Here is the input.
Amino acid sequence: MNYYSLNRQSPNVNFKEATIKGQAPDKGLYFPEEIPVLPKSFFRDIEQMSKEEMAYKVIAPFVGNVMPETVLQQIVNETINFPIPIVPVSDNIFALEMFHGKTLAFKDVGARFMSRCLGYFVKDNNKKVTVLVATSGDTGGAVADGFYKVEGVQVVILYPSGKVSSVQEKQLTTLGKNIFALEVNGTFDDCQQMVKQAFNDEMLMSQIFLTSANSINVARWLPQQFFYFLAYKQWQNKSLPPVISVPSGNFGNICAGILAHKSGLPIQHFIAACNANDVIPKFMETKVYNPQQAVATISNAMDVGNPSNFIRILEMFDGNADMLSNIFSSVCVTDEETKQVIKEVDATYGYLMDPHGAVGYIALKNYLKIHPEFSGIFAETAHPIKFYDVVEEIIHRKIPLPDGIQSLMQKEKKSVVIESDYDFLKNYLLSMAF
Ligand SMILES: *Cc1c(COP(=O)(O)O)cnc(C)c1O
Here is the structure.
């Protein structure tokens, strides 16, 4: 499988090169030359297959011949070595719990897959690789954990100061070793902007071996398809596929779901549930893409004002937003609604949602009101404990901290506080590379 740049000014590359580069030289996102169509037998046998076997079949065509089968199998097994269940919440609504990985958010899947692929691809390299990543909260922890102690790789994480939860912050600032955290006085978009600038800086790029671990990287994006196949594998009523609602920020997760659908996975409809950051809901209404400054909300991992992966979704529909709207819609949910529904669902059904999942739940519930013939799944993208600061205030009780989180919270934060100043970042990267 080869990948082309969505800006169409760079040569096509294989999976290995796309993973190492992150972004094409013309600044475009990489996109697979063709979307594999899975055979009917795959869907017929999906319940009998092990989840590892299923996931391997999904990802293998995208990886192609750049690594031996056994290596890819091992990577896939390690990527999904935790449960990803669908849990009934009400009569027609199920939660797809994506958060049972190490850092308690869905990003573990993409980060684990990518870190292992990259580790394999650079193992014979003599130049140290620097992974540069901006995080709105959960990417940082997942990437830090994925790359922790990986030989020949160091990780620099930029995060917006004061805009991530305390668990998120500890996850990305306490590991040490090859993991470095830069705490930026600014927003996630400022962090992302600096990362983009670094990749556009030819002088910098010629001196150090820099790659990204943001969701634009194909090795993070593509394995997220596993969630959707696993949801369908567990879905009881195969003759009436589910509506899936995904709380969205950078649109990587939902983009993987739509890709899975293009490969043949039966899904009734996709809902991208957003918080106050409403660029895509507005786009679907007006067909005008108007990026904004990110607004801070209680679902902070979705505070994105210029979602990078949306362009990939459009690509799957030849840029035709009308065609896209047959299978996809996008709505906004306020913080007030989110708080209200966390309380309500906890009290009524005894299911405690995190603020991101709650945004997905509301969007799904509203959709099903208009389409009562369907039932659906919302992606519960993080464990509520990860946002205990917000959630406890809503439900007026303490959530018991699991042991792992308790000891994490006692660790000492190590970060370098910086302004959103590209020159500082550049010098920092240069100084640590040698
Ligand atoms: C990153 C994240 C999101 C948004 O996912 P995208 O792929 O960026 O749309 C939603 N919920 C949680 C908990 C996250 O960490």
